[in-house]
Amino acid sequence: MTTNVLGYAASSPTSALAPYRFQRRGLRPDDVAIEVLYCGVCHSDLHTARNDWGGTQYPVVPGHEIIGRVTEVGPGVTRFKAGDRVGVGCMVDSCRHCNPCERGLEQYCAEGATFTYNAVDRHDHTPTQGGYSQRVVVSDRFVLKVPDGLDLAGAAPLLCAGITTWSPLRHWGAGPGRKVAVVGLGGLGHMALKLARALGADVTLFTRSPGKEADALRLGAHQVVLSTDAVQMVAVGGRFDLIIDTVPYAHDLNPYLPTLAIDGTLVLVGYLGDLDPLVNSVPLIMGRKAVAGSLIGGIPETQEMLDFCGQHGITSDIEVIRMQEINDAYERMLKSDVKYRFVIDMASLKD
Prior knowledge:
The protein is α/β, with parallel strands linked by helices. The chain is 23% helix and 26% strand. The protein contains ten helices and 17 strands. It has helices at residues 43-49, 99-102, 152-155, 161-171, 187-198, 213-219, 230-235, 282-287, 299-312, 326-334, and strands at 3-9, 18-24, 31-41, 66-73, 85-88, 91-93, 114-115, 135-139, 144-145, 179-183, 202-207, 223-226, 240-245, 260-268, 290-293, 318-322, 341-345. Strands 3, 4, 5, 8, 9, 16 and 17 form a seven-stranded mixed β-sheet that branches. Strands 12-11-10-13-14-15 form a six-stranded parallel β-sheet, with helices on one face. Helix 4 (161-171) packs across helix 5. The longest helix is centred in the last third of the chain and has 14 residues, at 299-312. It is globular. The model has no long low-confidence stretch (mean pLDDT 97).
């Protein structure tokens, strides 16, 4: 039996998000029903609501940084029970049988992962709707356990911002003896600093904005380099094994390539689209360097990241808002006026 729930949805690219009632499906045998307690606000939510990337199907309920409490489970579910603290990230399903899925890399599913919102359910072909709502229903394969002790509101952005930076840090071997730089200090960048430092790497922040040193050092950086200062950039030439680039718009990568060590890699996690200006291949060829990309992380990686954060007490720096403040929050996000992630207290949806 379906359940009528209240959420906030965009009904067009130009409309403000507003209250919206819709149906959540009844439980399948492997489903978990979750009361949404907190939902992080990601730039992807804004881009989807405003159709910046094209393909948005309206009305759309955003939200893929979901923290909640289990209220009910299907008869085939054994890993969860009512009352458990759980999370749901950017995906709610995949084909489950292709090579990436069998490797726990569901985000690269050969048939395309089913995303938490603005996608189509693989079974009943209804639109998926996200966490700006009272309740979600998700297959247990895509539900994460939230460690005891983690602040629930602060844990919400781990489901996107956290895993987006954790996956490349782990894949490219960030840890003791490795030098890691982070480009950009926002929602993604501040998580990259925290996670890289906790993994034991030597951590540097690249920024174009003077005045971020105190915050960067507090978040885990050992040093800060002003990327517009030629002298500072020369001083870190050939230094970094890994650069995590979190900038969400087109920007020049070329100044960063000389700072990579031999066999170093710059990984794009914030920007989707054509590079402008083009990358000069000379520094790459002359140092066996690489420019790569990375997309969120698989379910096993995400659980690993949550467990690591539980062990180290890592959460996102957040500003908690009411659901009714979401449109103002979107405008503030466009101005980078948040340190460093908005999280919606979903109890406010009842107000």
